[in-house]
Input
Amino acid sequence: MQEQERNIRYNAYVEAKIAKTHAWPSLFNSFWVGGLICTLGQLCNDLILLWFPSVSTQSAWAYTLIILIFLASFLTGLGVFDKIGAFAGAGTIVPITGFSNSIASPAIEFKNEGIIFGMCAKMFIIAGPVIVSGTVASMIVGLIYLFL
Amino acid sequence: MERKRGNQTVFFNNKPKIIGHYSIVGPKEGKGHLRKYFSQIEEKDDFFGQKTYEKAERVMIERALDGAIKSANAKYSDVHLFMAGDLLNQIISSSYAARSFDIPYVGVFGACSTMAESLALSACLVDGGHFDTIACATSSHFSTAERQFRFPLELGNQRPPTSQWTVTGSGADVVSIKGNGPRITSATFGKVTDFGINDVNNMGAAMAPAAMNTLIAHFKDTNTTPDDYDLILSGDLGKLGSEILIDLMEDQGYKLGLNYKDCGQMIFKRNQNVLMGGSGCGCSATVFNSIIMKKLIAGEYKKVLFMATGALLSTTSSQQGDTVPGIAHAVVIEGVEK
Output
């Protein structure tokens, strides 16, 4: 009992001791980098529609996503993306670029543990939960549609 | 003189000495405050000429051990035992490095406290007369530690403000009953202490209570106060952890003054983006085996209390939501006998 109380007191003391981070500068960086990425996506989309009039709007979205995913993976491979991410935080994580980086970075990291159980298996250690929650969410939505 | 006092402190009456020391660090550490004190700095990259970071860490231990033995003017055959440990699962860096040497090997694990732990144990074995000369070493590598404990290197995440930067480096010492060098006069073995911190990004706060316990036990057992030492050196508490330790000690009636320093805060410069400072086995090992040993030999320090702290967690325990237990071992090193 006494120990528990001591631990609670100590945790509260440590919590108070930690220097508070300033939210606004990091929010600002997230905002403008995230906005820039989205603008880039929109630019890709518009250019595709402009240059290839036969492409449908739906396919143009898909091509845009492919371009953004490629760019993020490419920058990850060059070792640049982690620096942008450290600077912009959620600004690079929330767009699809973050998803791409979260798959590409463990693939690079665990390549030396073999192709199958290293790269292929560990590729999803960070993105895995996102895929699972996306699948589960779509199942739930599907069920709701079934009964509506 | 007695050999043990209290429950935790042992005294070495036969004067085991540190006759050789060596430190090797990666490029980032080489750009830090202690550049001119390290024995060897790998300037190019932190691969040390190897294909993987794990192999690079082994090479660091091999070079550190080799350097320490050479700096003691000894031969491999003079060293009767090699004691080492590191952070990786099953302490592979140490054991695989030991594979290259024809010396009996003992693996030890004390997380980041390994340097003080192995120095204390070596001193016990040498003082007891079981071995004449023992080499001890430890290492850590930023990239292997990140891979094991945190995220892939290229992941674009932000580091929490309380986190520390694992030092890429290795340090080795040769402890012997013969020869000349700074003497290890006593050691205090710490107890595992857990004050219920479960944030794995706040190691300083997790380890500070263990450091406090060991320091108090040491001061009580040896009848000394913080002022009796030229330097009280903690391993890798970092900025936050050392501030907490100072507070905790003050609550217990001990004042840690200007003679208290932390290796984690000494090694990097502030603009190197390391947040709370350095950490890892290599942090205390390289700082101790560079600036501290040189100043002990030069006579600038006469009595140093070297206490390395470790966080005894694994990825499994932290993923299961367990708290982070800490440990701290302390050794007293006195200047060269004239």
